[in-house]
């Protein structure tokens, strides 16, 4: 198994549709080998592709973890291009995890029938200690989780297809060892947030950062907001409606819908945030006059100097640089989302309401993600009861 991208897909060719399935590489020339067929109807092409995929990239049941991962990536590509049940951004990081970490590893050569939970545990433990591709130590918690998600999903799919009697990943709890987190992954305090916002009150991104801190929106969701999504009624709270997001797919920004159907939502915002947004809109209007015909008229809230949308990776780099300038721990914009969720939960807001604000698919996601907050709150509550008894 190599790190080659063995993806399947249906693409438009002239007046018809071509179904393509990559089945590996020629052992002599090293060139990609593929099966393909032309159809007049896209559904017919997708149906043929499903049949070919069922036959397998190499025929029959995948024998090793590596061959399974190649087949699984084909299936995920079909979900993006035909079924529409998976986002291109998710496929991109699935492929990255496989090609950069899983396919080149010795575990890829282990036969499926011999693969055990202990093999998976040892693999993740090794990645936690020395998994960075630049050789500078182990992977962080989020990267380890991505690898575990891919392994669990691929092996779960193999089980559902009847290729293995059970999913060995089910008995494995993937977690980064204590002490493996780097300083950039540590959460902020409210004092850090206040210092950051005050230090950068005049920054071009000040309104975006405050908006994310107040709503707990994802990075791409904030970047996907247009002024038409902002509502400031005469009576009642102001709000923003989150219904689209910018994501990075294979190093390119792509605009799409929110992460899940449940992620589309309307979130109230406070008067201070409205005031910050109003000042920023006035500054945008000045920029628009200066740029004249060169101004991009997309109506985005978060923009570059010419009115064009800001790339997600640029937003993250700018945020990290601003952290250093403000003298607070250097984290990613996602920390603003975590801090918002923590403050809501610690403020006694019901989990269901927090899940709605964050755009989680269920309260279970919220409860599991912020279990440490709930445990801390429970300990404080028990302490208050004990205080009443003494």
Short note summarizing the structure:
With 390 residues, this protein is of the alpha+beta class. The protein contains 14 helices and 8 strands.
- In angstroms, what is the radius of gyration? 24 Å
Structural class per helix/strand content? alpha+beta
| Order of H and E elements | EEEHHHHHHHHEEEEEHHHHHH
CATH level-4 homologous superfamily of the largest domain: Intergrase catalytic core
pLDDT < 50 stretches: 1-7, 176-186
Mean pLDDT: 82
CATH architecture of the largest domain: Orthogonal Bundle
Number of helices: 14
Oligomer: single chain
Key descriptive features of the protein:
390 residues; alpha+beta; DNA polymerase, domain 1; hpI Integrase, Chain A; 2 domains; three-stranded antiparallel beta sheet; 14 helices; 12% strand; disordered N terminus
Summarize the structure in words.
- The protein has helices at 42-55, 65-83, 88-102, 117-130, 141-160, 190-199, 206-215, 219-223, 271-291, 312-326, 334-346, 351-358, 363-369, 371-388; strands spanning 8-13, 16-25, 32-39, 230-231, 238-242, 244-249, 252-257, 265-269.
- It is of the alpha+beta class and 390 residues long.
- It folds into two domains: 8-181, Tyrosine recombinase, N-terminal domain (DNA polymerase, domain 1), CATH 1.10.150; 185-377, hpI Integrase, Chain A.
- A three-stranded antiparallel beta sheet has the order 1-2-3. Strands 4-5-8 form a three-stranded antiparallel beta sheet. Strands 6-7 form a two-stranded antiparallel sheet.
- It is globular and about 65 Å long.
- The model is unreliable at 1-7 and 176-186 (pLDDT under 50).
